[in-house]
Design goal:
This protein is an alpha/beta fold. Helices cover about 35% and strands about 25% of the residues. Bound molecules: fructose -6-phosphate. Fructose -6-phosphate binds near residues 307, 353 and 355.
Length: about 600
């Protein structure tokens, strides 16, 4: 995780770097720091805590350097502290480095460097990098303009693990070097200036032209030039990509929090995701060239992802099974990659990742590829690492998602997976066309139905006020409602710190009902008319044992003992997770606000999980 920013140009680097860090804070927020070059020396300023704590440092507003690197940290090695914050320097104060990722062999490298006389001041893995650069630099007898680049190249060859690195050097005061392996890094091309960032939105207000770096590429930036090299330091060419997202989509735009803004952006995100694939009822998916013959040869589909993205898989498993008649397994990426799953060339593996940078999901994809399976990535970020690894990549059109808790990305993923299921089903012709056509009609209604839910949120807010002090809650559902109960429970945990569990309603009696006692809150989701009777019976069972029940339903339910019933519009069962999750997101949001917590940046979490 961690976020990194860099600037080289004619403006003062300090404010640009801090502004970029504030936008990258979702990636980590336990310490921050910047380095610039002033009067031929590298000047480092860093502090524990949020990026804004940098303003407590004397002289932070007086930095005049026009070249700089910066970092906001999510601690992996060494507790959050000033010493462990980045940038880290080598012993001679000649190289400053910021790093996102993990150096797995840092013990070995540290021992080697200590034997050579180097001293260490932090407990981080990163500190080996500037010292190793210094070591290779001092060993190199050639004094040409590629000396620092060679030292960086040799250092990278010694590193095991994952990294995105920015390097400032006092030997090359008008240049900056960056490189990456398994961690994101983009370069924003300006006019007489260049920018670096872990993601595109953080620097979108400065430029719309980007270079997307591939693994092991080394880049040397000056004010007017960006030179790309492969890992042998041979020159390579890269194309600039222009990005359409407006800078405003990365701003709060009048909302109190990004999460609330993103919840309200869901009608637009769904409309755009649908609009990009379903033109006049005809499904066209850019980047997907899958034939009927190939689909007929598939004996299994795996949907692999982490967290909320994995829940999108659980919510859509049944569309592939019911309309395509192909068995589907949904797996947690960190489990899938280590359990030697049975996959071969007849398996289609689908990976869902908002960021496209999640380490476990990418590793799971690489594993399936090695075993000969086809790989299809679903991401929200064009050019993200996962899309560059997969055989096919298709995109949700949710726009940048900044809040750590995923909302609009989830609903867009569920929409896109449904469209994918229909696309396969149309080719396979294993079910009646009318079923698919009806589903298409229902998909087009979703944005307006979400708007309808968002129009009146008072009752959700009222219930949140009633229960925000509780310690435990339970979420129940059957079928696709169970998938949403898992997502509702995760949202609540991550932003309100209330312990919660989700259960398939029918499973309650097999143990968990022992936890239901007077006053416990149970949230029940009931959108499937075929299962509603059974779900009501399960709710009665918990009410009998004293639970307060909050129901989200599209059915007519008349029961005085239920504390609150939130009515949502009716849709096809396959699509119901897109509607029923909205009250769950708002419920978690209001509880977090009532508790006075930081909704957008919950403790211990980061948006993009680029470590295992
Ligand atoms: C929860 C949340 C996480 C992510 C998970 C995967 O609100 O956002 O559970 O869904 O870390 O992230 P991506 O989709 O970027 O692979």
């Amino acid at each position: 995780m961690c976020g990194i920013v860099g600037y080289i140009g004619n403006k003062k680097a300090g404010p640009i770097l801090i502004n970029g860090l504030l936008r990258l804070e979702y990636r980590g927020y336990d310490s921050a720091g910047i380095a610039t070059i002033e009067n031929d020396n590298i000047k480092v300023m860093k502090n524990k805590g949020r990026v804004n704590n940098l303003y407590e440092l004397d002289g932070i507003n007086n930095l005049v350097g026009t070249i700089g690197i910066a970092h906001t940290r999510w601690a992996t090695h060494g507790k959050p502290s000033k010493e462990n914050s980045h940038p880290h320097m080598d012993n001679s104060n000649s190289f400053a480095v910021v790093h996102n990722g993990i150096i797995e062999n840092y013990h070995e490298l540290k021992t080697f460097l200590i034997e050579k006389g180097y001293k260490f001041v932090s407990s981080t893995d990163t500190e080996v990098i500037p010292n190793l650069i210094h070591y290779y630099f001092s060993q190199d007898k050639l004094n040409d303009d590629k000396k620092v680049l060679r030292a960086v190249k040799n250092t990278c060859n010694s590193l095991k693990g994952s990294y995105a690195i920015e390097i400032l050097s006092k030997y090359n005061k008008d240049k900056m070097i960056v490189t990456r392996k398994d961690n994101p890094l983009v370069i924003g091309k300006g006019n007489g200036e260049n920018y670096i960032s872990s993601d595109i939105p953080a620097i979108l207000s400065y430029t719309k032209d980007f270079y997307l770096l591939d693994d092991n590429e080394i880049v040397e930036l000056s004010r007017d030039d960006v030179k790309f090299y492969n890992k042998e330091l041979r020159s390579i060419k890269k194309q600039v990509k222009s990005i359409e997202w407006g800078a405003l989509s990365a701003e709060k735009d009048g909302y109190d929090d990004f999460m609330l803004k993103e919840i309200y952006e869901q009608p637009k995100a769904i409309r755009e995701t649908v609009g990009a694939k379903l033109d006049n009822g005809h499904i066209e998916i850019d980047g997907l060239e899958i034939t009927k013959e190939y689909l007929e040869s598939i004996n299994k589909i795996y949907i692999v992802a982490c967290g909320t993205a994995m829940h999108a898989g659980v919510a859509t498993k049944s569309i592939f099974e019911r309309l395509c008649k192909i068995p589907v397994e949904v797996d947690i990426a960190s489990e899938f990659r280590y359990r030697n799953p049975l996959i071969d060339e007849k398996t289609l593996t689908i990976y869902v990742s908002q960021s496209g940078e999640t380490a476990d999901t990418i590793a799971a994809l690489k594993l399936a590829k090695l075993k000969g399976a086809k790989t299809l990535a679903i991401s929200n970020v064009i050019g993200s690492s996962i899309t560059r690894e997969a055989d096919y990549s298709i995109y949700t059109h949710a726009g940048p998602e900044i809040a750590v808790a995923s909302t609009k990305a989830y609903t867009s993923q569920v929409v896109l997976l449904n469209i994918l299921g229909m696309y396969f089903a149309e080719k396979l012709e294993r079910v009646d066309r009318d079923i698919i056509n009806k589903l298409k009609e229902d998909i087009f209604k979703l944005p307006t139905q979400v708007e309808e839910i968002l129009k009146d949120t008072n009752r959700i807010h009222k219930f949140a006020k009633k229960v925000y002090k509780e310690k435990d809650m339970f979420f129940l559902g059957r079928g696709t409602d169970y998938a949403v109960s898992m997502e509702g429970s995760l949202k609540l945990k991550e932003i309100s710190y209330i312990h919660s569990e989700s259960y398939a309603s029918g499973e309650l009696k097999h143990g968990p009902i022992a936890l239901i006692e007077n006053g416990v809150t149970v949230i029940a989701i009931m959108t499937n008319s075929e299962l509603v009777e059974k779900s009501i019976s399960n709710v009665e069972e918990v009410i009998t044992r004293g639970a307060k029940v909050f129901v989200i339903t599209s059915e007519e339910i008349d029961n005085d003992e239920i504390s609150e019933i939130i009515k949502i519009p009716k849709t096809n069962t396959f699509l119901s997770p897109i509607l029923s999750v909205i009250p769950m997101q708002l419920f978690a949001y209001y509880i977090s606000k009532e508790k006075g917590l930081d909704v957008d940046k919950p403790r211990n979490l980061a948006k993009s999980v680029t470590v295992e």
